[in-house]
Amino acid sequence: MAEKPIRFGIIGCADIARKVSRAITLAPDAELYAVASRSLEKASAFAKANNFPPSAKIYGSYESLLDDPEIDAVYVPLPTSLHVKWACLVAQKKKHILLEKPVGLNVAEFDKIVEACEANGVQIMDGTMWIHNPRTHEMKKFLNDKERFGELKNIHSCFTFAGDEDFLNNDIRVKPDLDALGALGDAGWYGIRSILWAADYELPKTVTALPGPVLNEAGVILSCAACLHWEDGKVATFHCSF
């Protein structure tokens, strides 16, 4: 446990921030310290609706929150297209970052974020919560018990959900200017992460997109799949879909 609670600020009032703000409140070594939106009214309403402590600070701009010297870490639940800008600004303010997944639209964006964190001596963690669950730790014990289960040869992951008409037309995850990776960045992130976790984060030799992806009219992925191969013969597949 930390010597004193880690004081978290949140920039953005996305729906996922409701769940994470409550988790921060429940964590014994964290403090829900501040929230910011693009308007003071929205930030205030968000804090009230999610039972922020009376002492929590409310800001009407992201910049104002980042300028608060009392904040230790910032949770960033903004659309993926905004991650590289705001994560780098958080790092430049010498604050640690909890960044919602996917961390960026491509590797180059993530490299910029990592560079900013290293230059300013701060830590970054992405919002893939299941990787830290005690059950995940127990699952790893099974995978590592080669005498009992043998060598890992095949990994298959699938994450789909049926988005309704409103989701498929209006959610930020189907908008090319907000979350251009679509289902691949949202649901596929978990499938790919689980595969790499099982493979001890060894990158595959080849990745082949499987035929039949589904795109919306804007070209955002609604459904896709791929096959991964390693030099030692391991094979993995993943499928993700809205």
TrEMBL record:
GO terms for molecular function: nucleotide binding. It comes from the Eukaryota. Residues 145-242 form the GFO/IDH/MocA-like oxidoreductase domain. Residues 6-125 form the Gfo/Idh/MocA-like oxidoreductase N-terminal domain. InterPro entries: Gfo/Idh/MocA-like_OxRdtase_N, GFO_IDH_MocA-like_dom, NAD(P)-bd_dom_sf. Belongs to the Gfo/Idh/MocA family. PANTHER family: GFO_IDH_MOCA-LIKE OXIDOREDUCTASE N-TERMINAL DOMAIN-CONTAINING PROTEIN (PTHR46368:SF19), PTHR46368. This is Gfo/Idh/MocA-like oxidoreductase N-terminal domain-containing protein. It comes from Dovyalis caffra.
